[in-house]
């Protein structure tokens, strides 16, 4: 009868402009899909060139090389007898579109341009592409000669159409279109489309996965149908980690779930589903059927091919499953770890160096590297040949097999405690014990000689010697002396990253890891060009609150008992002199606000789009049990003064793993001035007026 269709979707770890690697991963996914009986294969958004090409999309080379890859796909025996749906940029009548190219047996069936472009937060698609605005309209696209020679076609359909096979009807969505209020799947479903496909380039944000899953399931809950979602995975060259989660859903329920975090470059999901289940589900939804009778039909591209077999009565079909979501602590353990692995292997470096202070932030960063080593060992144990080859190249040992995370950590991870006369023995001991437990190669050094030398140069030139405030110096002198220590640590971190392996008789260099959290960056509580300045920062998009919970997770899951004392110690920069041998300086006292308050300010500023006055108005209600309006006003003013005074630091912020929607990352996510009128006179006057009225 032809009712059981077998379809495949995938999550691919594509890399921007890595045309050769991208092609190889696409081929592998098609091979796997065919081996499992699939007759249709869906890939991620812009998978041929990689999603994160950014301004390289303007280059004709990107278009040329994408068509060259398409040529290889079309002419290969691998792509025969399966409908292949791939993503690439296409220039149509001198307008650049983000497209799906759908082909079968050396013939292009349809080029479907994206209708709704992602243009918020980290996305800038309108910068490079134009949305297709001609609903249910198809034009002729003249193929490049290299494609004509393979397909024998001069023109192919280009536009908003659906595919009608011998047994069903398929319609495509592209990423953002699922999130749009007028998603194409609504009208397509009413017009009889039974299988919806979505090729995505969707990145990880803490606590976001459920939203994507809910959208996919709800797409077919009201209208019936099969929904197939493919996604990019991994680090394709910037701050984002694309978190896979390929999935297949039918009639509002998940039937196949891909992993959110893994080191597998290619992951393919295959499901066999009964089309009659879709038809019977739709049959009893009278409101849907009434709307369907009035729908404006889509152009249909007829395809002489079936996704099912004629004799499929005994073919087993997939049943609904329960989606398992990771906890935020698991997400922090896995997402940044996978991102670090991609960055390490693709940068062709030999490991990481981390200034380990014995505080929560640097310790959390160390734990993420340790988690990365766990993931590598697990992947090798599960037979991942790609990970094994990468690990052997990184450690420069062709016979090496990573089995113990601590042993791998020793090879690829160097930690360094940089003591000064203002450092306590407690933090030194904490750093040393944590390094022992995770297995890193640990260095202890003292920076006092370098600090004295730098300050000495200033004294020789000016005839003045700055002093800390506890010794009678001004706040300017004290801050300058703190900054000297911090910046010398950055210089030494890069020196040791470049030459530590050389000194140990080993090849290669190390990537320097930063460890400033999202809240400190927002407040600007860091020294410009200190150890927050690094090559990459895996925790730069994570809040202090989430990092504390992650530390607790590591105590319980990795048995890192050294973290207990780190958790209980108050966060401190240790840049001011000790008092009776004990730390007197704490972060929250220095900042004039708590980390919990900072998270609230950050979410209101970015997510709720609140300026000073709006933030004050929201907080007098949120904090009415703990603060008077005058106290709230004082806190809001202090935050905005400190935020605006320090905003210039965001222009040089180390590239960080994007994990939080209130990130102050100045690169492209949080676009603001960096020279403010820090008095906020008009805004603060509005607050004062309201305080007086209250």
TrEMBL record:
It comes from the Eukaryota. Keywords: ATP-binding, Ligase, NAD, Nucleotide-binding. Pathway: Cofactor biosynthesis; NAD(+) biosynthesis; NAD(+) from deamido-NAD(+) (L-Gln route): step 1/1. GO terms for biological process: 'de novo' NAD+ biosynthetic process from L-tryptophan. Gene3D superfamilies: Carbon-nitrogen hydrolase, HUPs. Its EC number is 6.3.5.1. Transmembrane segments: none annotated. GO terms for cellular component: cytosol. Homohexamer. In the C-terminal section; belongs to the NAD synthetase family. This is Glutamine-dependent NAD(+) synthetase. It comes from Struthidea cinerea.
